[in-house]
Amino acid sequence: MSLLKRRDPTVQKAGIRKKVLARRREAHEQGPDAAANGHLLDVLRPHAGKVMSGYMPIRSEIDPRPALTQMARLGPVVVPVIQGAGLPLIFRVWTPEAKMIDGPFGALVPAEGEFLTPEVLVVPLVAFDATGNRLGYGGGFYDRTLAQLSAAGQVLALGFAYAAQEYAGILPCEDTDWRLDMVVTEVGARRFDPPA
Ligand SMILES: Nc1nc2c(c(=O)[nH]1)N(C=O)[C@@H](CNc1ccc(C(=O)N[C@@H](CCC(=O)O)C(=O)O)cc1)CN2
Ligand SMILES: Nc1ncnc2c1ncn2[C@@H]1O[C@H](COP(=O)(O)OP(=O)(O)OP(=O)(O)O)[C@@H](O)[C@H]1O
């Protein structure tokens, strides 16, 4: 591979995705989701009443629905809906009883209900690092969404993942990549320092 290609973050990200996804699949088979949901609930509870976004898991993503089910009793929980390529996500109210339909990329979306703007976001991811950088599937959906929401007000971005999804180095980042405030895994919750 040429030096230029190695330094291209898009190329680097693709290689890291593949490696970390293999580890995520292994962790998913072990299924430490219950322990992670306990930690997630501890982090979310103080925010009860705020509009909070979760996600409907796809592939080997860790399942946040146990914690979201509890939070939906205390306040509005929303999940992402894709408007189109290159556009930020919008969010529709979810409850455990909501009628769900298939959305793009296999994630379920609510068939009906109000669209609300979240202040606290539980964000799915492929990889994270020790400084709060996040790598997703490459659509840039969460980067665009977090940029838009933070321009309008304060948001809290919480990554939810298996501990095995931590990348040992610093993830390659572009100017548009958004950093996480915290990450929650089966090991516990970690808060990242704000950028220097
Ligand atoms: N559960 C869940 N819901 C979510 C997301 C997510 O990551 N997880 N998203 C977070 O953004 C959005 C969906 N984004 C996605 C974007 C791309 C692919 C995907 O499969 N991409 C291809 C590669 C495409 C390419 O770059 O060529 C792939 O991985 O095979 C999946 C989801 C909205 N909802
Ligand atoms: N706020 C933004 N405005 C314009 N383009 C953006 C913005 N955020 C991200 N992008 C573009 O989206 C592309 C994909 O981003 P990236 O690979 O970081 O996605 P990701 O974080 O892995 O995916 P996702 O957020 O969907 O889970 C980038 O090449 C970037 O140029």
TrEMBL record:
Substrate binds at residues 56, 61. SUPFAM superfamilies: NagB/RpiA/CoA transferase-like. Coiled coil: none annotated. ATP binds at residues 13-17, 134-142. Its cofactor is Mg(2+). Pfam families: 5-FTHF_cyc-lig. It catalyses: (6S)-5-formyl-5,6,7,8-tetrahydrofolate + ATP = (6R)-5,10-methenyltetrahydrofolate + ADP + phosphate. GO terms for biological process: folic acid-containing compound biosynthetic process; tetrahydrofolate interconversion. GO terms for molecular function: 5-formyltetrahydrofolate cyclo-ligase activity; ATP binding; metal ion binding. Keywords: ATP-binding, Ligase, Magnesium, Metal-binding, Nucleotide-binding. Its EC number is 6.3.3.2. Belongs to the 5-formyltetrahydrofolate cyclo-ligase family. PANTHER family: 5-FORMYLTETRAHYDROFOLATE CYCLO-LIGASE (PTHR23407:SF1), ATPASE INHIBITOR/5-FORMYLTETRAHYDROFOLATE CYCLO-LIGASE (PTHR23407). This is 5-formyltetrahydrofolate cyclo-ligase. It comes from Rhodovulum imhoffii.
